[in-house]
Design a protein that fits this description.
Blueprint: H1 3-12, H2 17-26, H3 31-43, H4 49-52, E1 53-56, H5 58-73, E2 85-89, H6 117-124, E3 128-133, H7 169-176, E4 182-187, H8 193-199, E5 202-205, E6 225-230, H9 233-243, E7 260-265, H10 274-289, E8 293-298, H11 300-303, H12 314-327, H13 337-344, H14 351-372, E9 377-381, H15 396-407, H16 411-416, E10 420-424, E11 434-438, H17 444-459
Parallel strand pairs: 2-3, 2-4, 7-8, 7-9
Antiparallel strand pairs: 1-3, 4-6, 5-6, 5-10, 9-11, 10-11
C-alpha cells in the first residue's frame, strides 16, 4: 500500500474498537486496510515496532483480515468484533507458539498446544491477533525494560528515551502508537496500570479471580490478574467482558453527580512529581465541579503497607517458587541480572511467614473495606512520577529504587485485590499522567460503569 494512502487511513481511524468494528461491519473500512495500518506502524523503521513486539503475525493477520472482508462481502455471519486488531503480552499461550515470557530461558520450550482461554475467547469474538508484545522478563518489574528484546519507549519525550512502564510495556506502546487497537497484559503489582499511565492510555486491573489463568505464564498466582489496555474506558470494558466469558459489552455510565470518591491521604499522595500533582489536582477540581463528592480519608492500615518496597512478600515467595528450578541450575545466567536478583529475594521466606502474610492480608482487606464502604471508589494518582528516563537509572540500585517508585501506588490494589482502572488526566502535549479509580473487590463492572461516567471529566 502506498505510504500516502496509509497516512490518510490512519488519520481517518479512531482506534476505538467499537468504531473499527462498526466500520468493518458496514463496509466503510476493510479489515485488511485496518491490519495493514497496524503492520505499517509496526514495520516503520523510525518507530517502536522492533522493541515493542517479540513476534509479529504478518501473514496470518493478513489472511484472517482477507477472510473477514470476503465473509462481509458475501453476507456471511461474522462475530461482533471481526477484523479488529489485538496484541497480546508474551506470556499468553497461542497454539503452536513458544511462550517466552520476555525471556531467552524458555526459547527452546515446546510450543503451546492450545490458546490460553482468554486468547481463545478474544479470537472467537473476531479479534485478529497481530503479535506478541515485549515485556519485562517474567513480568517482574514496573519499568518495562528488557535486556534481551529491547526497551519499548513511552510516546512522551522519545529523544530522551523514557520507559514505557512494566511489566506490560510493549502492550502499552502497541496501543499508544496505533500498532493495535487493543492489547491484553497482566497485572501483579501494577503491570497494566503503570504502562497505561506512562503511555497515556487506559489500563485495567481486574479482581484476581475474575479472569481464567490457564495458559498464562505465572508470576504470583495469588496476585496475578490478566487485564485489558486500550484507548478508552469503553474499549477496556468490552475486552474485560469477553475475557471474563461475556459477549463484549461496555457499561451504562454512572451519573457523576452525587458519586463519592475518597483520596487515601498519606504516603500514596506524597512526593509527587510536579506534573503528576498538577494534572491530578486539576482532574479532582473538574470532578468536584461536575458534582462528584471528593473527600480525603486516612487509611491507617495502608500507612504500614509498602508492597512495592517489600522484598519479603507473598509475591516474592511465589515468584521464587515458580523459578527455583532454573535459578538453582546452570541456566541461571540466562536471567537479566536485575530480574534474577529480584527473584532470589523470595528464596528464604519460611512457610510460617508465608501463611502469616495471608492472615495479615485478610485483616488489612477487611479493615479497608469497613472504612471505605461509604464511597463509590478510591481515587489517586496511578504513579507518583512521570515515566523515568532510562539514562537516569545506570545502576541496579537505581533501577530498584525507580521500580519501587513506579509501583508504589499501584501495588496496593493488588494487595487489596480490588479492581482498579487508570485513565489519562494530563493536558494534551504534556507528560502522560494517569488517575486511578479503585473499586470494591469483585465489583469490576460497577467500577467500569463509574469510570465510563467520569472519563470525559477526568480527561478534561
Amino acid at each position: 500500500m502506498h505510504f500516502l494512502a496509509i497516512a490518510v487511513i490512519l488519520c481517518a481511524m479512531t482506534y476505538l474498537i467499537k468504531d473499527i468494528a462498526h466500520q468493518i461491519a458496514d463496509g466503510t473500512l476493510n479489515a485488511r486496510d485496518h491490519i495493514e495500518n497496524c503492520l505499517a506502524a509496526i514495520d516503520d523503521k523510525n518507530g517502536q515496532g522492533q522493541n515493542t513486539f517479540i513476534e509479529t503475525y504478518h501473514d496470518r493477520a493478513r489472511a484472517e483480515a482477507d477472510a473477514v472482508d470476503t465473509a462481509r462481502k458475501n453476507g456471511w455471519a461474522l462475530p461482533p468484533f471481526a477484523g479488529v486488531s489485538l496484541s497480546i503480552k508474551d506470556l499468553f499461550d497461542v497454539a503452536g507458539d513458544v511462550t517466552k515470557a520476555g525471556s531467552i530461558l524458555l526459547a527452546d520450550s515446546p510450543p503451546a498446544k492450545k490458546d490460553a482461554t482468554i486468547v481463545a475467547r478474544l479470537r472467537q469474538a473476531g479479534f485478529i491477533l497481530i503479535g506478541r508484545t515485549n515485556m519485562t522478563e517474567f513480568a517482574f518489574s514496573g519499568l518495562g525494560m528488557n535486556v534481551h528484546y529491547g526497551n519499548p519507549l513511552s510516546p512522551y519525550d522519545r529523544k530522551t528515551g523514557r520507559v514505557a512502564g512494566g511489566s506490560s510495556s510493549g502492550s502499552a506502546v502497541s496501543v499508544s502508537d496505533n500498532m493495535a487497537a487493543i492489547s491484553i497484559g497482566s497485572d501483579t503489582g501494577g503491570s497494566t496500570r503503570a504502562p497505561a499511565s506512562y503511555c497515556g492510555i487506559v489500563g485495567l486491573k481486574p479482581s484476581t479471580a475474575r479472569m481464567p489463568s490457564d495458559g498464562v505464564f505465572p508470576l504470583s498466582p495469588s496476585f496475578d490478574a490478566a487485564g485489558p489496555m486500550g484507548n478508552s474506558v469503553a474499549c477496556v470494558s468490552i475486552i474485560d467482558s469477553i475475557m471474563a466469558g461475556g459477549v463484549g459489552v461496555s457499561e451504562t455510565p454512572f451519573n457523576p453527580d452525587g458519586l463519592r470518591l475518597a483520596i487515601p491521604d498519606g504516603y500514596l499522595m506524597e512526593n509527587l512529581d510536579a506534573e503528576v500533582a498538577t494534572a491530578f489536582d486539576a482532574a479532582i477540581d473538574r470532578l468536584r465541579d461536575a458534582g462528584v463528592h471528593v473527600q480525603k480519608i486516612r487509611l491507617d492500615a495502608l500507612e504500614a503497607m509498602r508492597p512495592s518496597n517489600n522484598t519479603k512478600s507473598i509475591v516474592s515467595a511465589e515468584a521464587y517458587a515458580v523459578h527455583r528450578q532454573w535459578l538453582e541450575s546452570d541456566q541461571s545466567d540466562k536471567y537479566d541480572p536485575f530480574i534474577g536478583h529480584r527473584l532470589r529475594g523470595g528464596a528464604d521466606i519460611l512457610a510460617a511467614d508465608y501463611i502469616a502474610m495471608f492472615e495479615k492480608r485478610d485483616t488489612v482487606c477487611h479493615n479497608i473495606k469497613m472504612q471505605t464502604r461509604g464511597f463509590d471508589a478510591l481515587v489517586l494518582p496511578t504513579t507518583p512520577g512521570i515515566a523515568p528516563a532510562i539514562n537516569a537509572m545506570p545502576t541496579r540500585d537505581k533501577q530498584l529504587e525507580m521500580n519501587a517508585r513506579s509501583l508504589r501506588n499501584t501495588a496496593i490494589s493488588n494487595y487489596l485485590d480490588r479492581p482498579t482502572i487508570s485513565i489519562p488526566c494530563h493536558k494534551s502535549g504534556t507528560a502522560p499522567v494517569g488517575l486511578s479509580l479503585m473499586g470494591s473487590r469483585h465489583h469490576d463492572r460497577r467500577l467500569l460503569a463509574i469510570a465510563e461516567g467520569l472519563e470525559a471529566i477526568i480527561r478534561g
